[in-house]
Amino acid sequence: MTANIFDDRPCALGEGPLWHPEREQFFWFDILGKRLLSRTDDGPLEWQFDEMFSAAGWVDRDTMILASQTALWRFSIGTGATEKIVALEAGNAATRSNDGRADPYGGFWIGTMGLNAEPGLGAIYRYYRGELRKIFDDITVSNAISFPPGRGTACFADTRTRQVMRVALDSDGWPSGTPDVFIDTQDEELNPDGAVFDEQGNFWVAQWGSARVACYDAQGNFVRSVEVDARHSSCPAFGGPDLGDLYVTSARQGISKDVLEDEPSNGMTFRVAGVATGQKEHRVIL
Length: 286
Fold this sequence. Notes:
Blueprint: E1 4-7, E2 14-20, E3 25-30, E4 35-40, E5 43-48, E6 53-60, E7 63-68, E8 71-76, E9 82-87, E10 95-102, E11 108-114, E12 122-128, E13 131-139, E14 142-146, E15 153-158, E16 163-169, E17 175-184, E18 192-197, E19 203-207, E20 212-216, E21 222-227, E22 232-239, E23 245-251, H1 257-262, E24 269-273
Antiparallel strand pairs: 1-24, 2-3, 3-4, 4-5, 6-7, 7-8, 8-9, 10-11, 11-12, 12-13, 14-15, 15-16, 16-17, 18-19, 19-20, 20-21, 22-23, 23-24
């Protein structure tokens, strides 16, 4: 199954796709381009920022939480205004935010990484009821933050390890115990990037450098894949009125100009209908 182009604006580093369930509207980021993008029936939308933004969660119909290289922000969709919620590694000029997602408890998980993917420079944090707490450190490229149906488990990855980890959660959604390996792609030399679970508990993960999103079942067994016409698929998200569309962001980062001339769809955003039914994205409680 192959995804079609949903939006032809190329992103240097497309990431952080989010289907806002109350607005029935799709949002995503170009991290290196310092912009938030969207598209409605009236056409494309875009918000430009002064620093890199990478991930979002929905708060209400008109408000989202956004993660940037220095903070978490309250964002007004209608006006584009931002209000700082809490600093995020603001004193460390060598890092930025990366992958993030809301959890079933109303919290928001956000990963960081070095600007040049320096080993171990990143971490994963959780914002919950006014507290930002570091929950994992020694991360190089934070990715695959995702939550299967129900409560009690979270997944994440450090892309450099080529492993997706799974960790139990306590009654408030904080990690409990030691993470174990959910999916290991070291032998296949696949690079787990952004990921999301569907309503059946299948795990959909973009694999950087592989031009696809791979689906694994709840036991971590490979099921199938969706191909995209972009070398660096970066993150999937389910959307559409029935959550039956799979959206996929991609990136141009690290691809030569000669290749881009022959393969201009690198960095564009894709969609395929009817591949599976997703979960409604969880609401962040501020």
